[in-house]
Specification:
Blueprint: E1 20-22, E2 24-25, H1 30-42, E3 48-51, H2 54-57, H3 81-87, E4 97-101, H4 106-119, E5 128-131, H5 135-142, H6 149-166, E6 170-171, E7 174-176, H7 178-182, H8 187-208, H9 216-221, E8 224-229, H10 233-253, E9 267-271, H11 283-293, E10 305-307, H12 320-336, H13 350-372, H14 380-400, H15 431-446, H16 449-463, H17 470-479, H18 483-494, H19 503-506, H20 514-524, E11 532-536, H21 545-556, E12 560-563, H22 570-579, E13 584-589, H23 594-607, E14 614-618, H24 622-630, E15 635-637, H25 644-658
Parallel strand pairs: 1-10, 2-3, 3-4, 4-5, 5-6, 7-8, 8-9, 9-10, 11-12, 11-13, 13-14, 14-15
Helix pairs in contact: 1-3, 4-17, 5-14, 6-8, 8-10, 8-13, 10-13, 14-21, 16-17, 16-18, 20-25, 22-23
């Protein structure tokens, strides 16, 4: 008789509850976005994730001149309480978990959210959700900041103190390592810089005296994280396990949190948008699926919420069907597979434990270094330089073929895609801006201006004091104030800030590039000195990674580069081109406002008598390229044009021809 092989009982059990499923969305108007939200919720989405347009994110009303070309493009405009009411119509605030991607005006948007709930009879203690509110990553990568580090941190601290008493189920801050990875951060940097940011805020909350020591654990438990999941999903799994271990230790040792539940590393995810490709965009589907595994496979470090980009986001705004496809990816993973039926799959894995341990050690060393510099808020310049250098290394490896990207630098042959065509992305109707501007003007005319003036005066008084900003913010929302008015008062009191570019720290530090070296030899041999290139980012688009890499590559190619950073007006760019006597102007736009802003720059250059070629880079649909070329642009580059040496060679040729 053969004895049966010994075996252990099946580890399967009742499935865990799935993570919260979101889609990051919002566009055109509050009414259109509300319709989209209700449609997505009906399809099985379990939480809202609101995308605001750039004017809202940077504290401008739609009729401000800074908002030209940007209204409703990459998110929904919310300028007043009426917009918030329309945005949430038919959605029960007391039952919904709402994530708002808002940073510099986060206190204002929370004020509108609380005021709208109150108007509908919902007590603030019932509200659940998150305001992103990580200003450090705005300085380092995303660019929608307004105020400097000191004043920005004060606003964040005020929100923590207010929420602890009045909105206890709300996460006042979502520390975002997501955007750090988009800006080039290694896993070590992503962990260390995010944890340094959280420490910088929590230390400030403790030092403010607004929260008693016995309630500090509640504050610690209310902080959440928003993390990137890249294509190296084994390494990403280890990264999340390292995050979890380090946060547990920090909260216990630094803040004395004894309850393990309060020490949990609670995080949401959007998987990597940096890796989405314009070339063969259908490959993005499998990238998104694999990246989702990196934050769901390990039960002990699994995401609490997940939102997936659409396959065509490297081309432009996804359509509702594309967002549905991404939602269905989550639903298949959670409902059809057996992923949620097992304990942690990596417990006892020698490979995973060693990889996690190594990441913890490296990240702790990097974190200690940042803290020795004073902390994340104090070390903005240094951290920005490090990220630009890391991103330079990544881009050079792609260009050299050392980092394969399928469909871009390898396996580039392709059949014609049935998913293509002019209708593959959604475009915002240009009439939206005029409609929204008219709406805001009508709102101002209908309100009680004396009430608004009184509320603005009180906001200014509080801003100049050390009182908590939230009560006066909510009062302004209820009186009918606007986003631009709230931010305008604080701009007057706090001043504005320009973050470092990091370009100077990265030039000459990346891996060698034979193509750039050849361009440099050609440029240095030119009579009359090196080529002078102006890199400009018109409009409110703060995503500067591409512009920074162009500036670094141009310096490595022997050119003189004038780059003043993000959020410049067309007038400022034209004036700089004239005053700096440049030979080529390069514009970078990723917000969809290229058809409005680029022709304006060209017109102003002509008006000033500056006869130089203008080249443009960004997320620009093919049909828009012809419009830009007919408007006077010399060349258009999109993400598929990843060979920086080729671009630098083109720029050198344009400058030589002009000479």
């Amino acid at each position: 008789m053969v004895n049966p092989a010994p075996h252990s009982p099946s580890p399967r059990r009742a499935p865990d509850r799935p993570w919260m499923m979101r889609t990051y969305s919002g566009h055109s108007t509050a009414k259109a976005s509300n319709e989209l939200y209700r449609t997505n919720l009906a399809k099985g989405q379990t939480g809202l994730s609101i995308a605001f347009d750039l004017p809202t994110q940077t504290g401008y009303d739609p009729d401000d001149f800074h908002s030209h070309g940007e209204v409703g493009k990459v998110g929904v405009p919310v300028a007043h309480l009426g917009h918030m009411a329309t945005l949430l119509e038919g959605i029960p605030q007391g039952e919904m978990n709402t994530s708002m991607t808002i940073n510099a005006p986060a206190a204002w948007m929370l004020g509108l959210y609380v005021a709208n709930a109150s108007a509908n009879g919902v007590d603030s203690t019932a509200l659940r959700g998150t305001t992103q509110n990580d200003i450090v990553k705005e300085y380092l990568s995303r660019g929608t900041y307004i105020f400097g580090p000191e004043h920005s941190r004060r606003l964040i601290v005020d929100m923590f103190a207010f929420c602890n008493t009045n909105v206890p189920k709300w996460n006042p801050m979502n520390v975002c390592s997501y955007h750090l990875q988009e800006a080039g951060a290694t896993p070590t940097q992503e962990i260390a810089y995010a944890l340094a940011t959280a420490i910088g805020v929590l230390d400030a909350v403790r030092e403010s005296g607004q929260v008693s020591d016995d309630r500090l654990p509640e504050v610690v438990a209310s902080i959440s994280f928003f993390v990137n999941a890249g294509i190296r999903f084994v390494e990403e799994t280890a990264k999340m396990r390292a995050f979890t271990q380090m946060w547990d230790r920090i909260t216990e040792e630094r803040y004395g949190v004894s309850d393990p539940k309060a020490r949990r590393f609670r995080y949401g995810v959007q998987v990597n948008s940096l890796g989405l490709t314009e070339a063969q965009p259908e490959n993005n589907v499998q990238r998104i699926v694999l990246e989702a595994l990196g934050v769901t496979l390990s039960r002990n470090a699994r995401a609490r919420s997940l939102q997936l980009p659409a396959w065509n986001e490297a081309l432009g705004l996804p359509r509702p069907w594309d967002q549905q496809w991404s939602l269905r990816i989550q639903q298949v993973l959670a409902q059809e597979t057996d992923l949620l039926e097992y304990d942690d799959l990596f417990e006892g894995s020698h490979v995973m434990e060693a990889l996690t341990r190594n990441l913890v050690d490296e990240a702790q060393a990097e974190l200690d270094d940042v803290l020795s510099l004073g902390g994340a808020f104090e070390a903005i310049d240094e951290l920005k330089g490090r990220l630009v250098r890391s991103h330079t290394e990544r881009m050079r490896r792609i260009e050299a073929g050392d980092l394969p990207v399928v469909g871009v630098n390898c396996f580039t042959g392709t059949a014609e895609s049935p998913l293509g065509g002019n209708e593959s992305i959604m475009k915002v109707d240009p009439a939206v801006a005029a409609e929204t501007i008219a709406d805001v003007k009508a709102w101002r005319e209908a309100r009680n201006q004396s009430h608004v003036d009184a509320a603005l005066g009180e906001l200014e008084r509080v801003a100049r004091s050390d009182e908590n900003i939230m009560a006066s913010t909510i009062a302004l929302a209820e009186a009918g104030g606007t986003t631009g008015e709230w931010a305008g008062v604080l701009r007057e009191v706090f001043g504005e800030y320009r973050a470092p570019t990091g370009v100077g720290s990265a030039a000459g530090t990346g891996p060698g590039n034979d193509g750039l070296a050849a361009v440099a030899r050609r440029v240095r041999a030119l009579p009359g000195g090196p080529v002078r290139l102006l890199v400009g980012k018109p409009g409110l688009d703060g995503h500067s990674n591409g512009a920074e890499q162009i500036a670094v590559a141009a310096r490595d190619a022997g050119m003189e580069v004038i780059y003043a950073g993000i959020r410049l007006t067309p007038e400022q760019i034209a004036a700089a081109a004239r005053d700096e006597d440049v030979e080529v102007v390069g514009l970078s736009i990723l917000s969809g406002s290229h058809l409005e802003l680029v022709p304006e720059v060209v017109r102003l250059l002509e008006e000033d008598g500056v006869e130089v070629p203008v080249v443009v880079g960004g997320i620009i649909p093919p049909e828009d390229e012809a419009n830009l070329l007919s408007a006077g642009v010399t060349a258009v580059y999109t993400p598929k044009d990843y060979e920086l040496a080729t671009i630098m060679g083109d720029i050198a040729t344009l400058a030589i021809a002009r000479r």
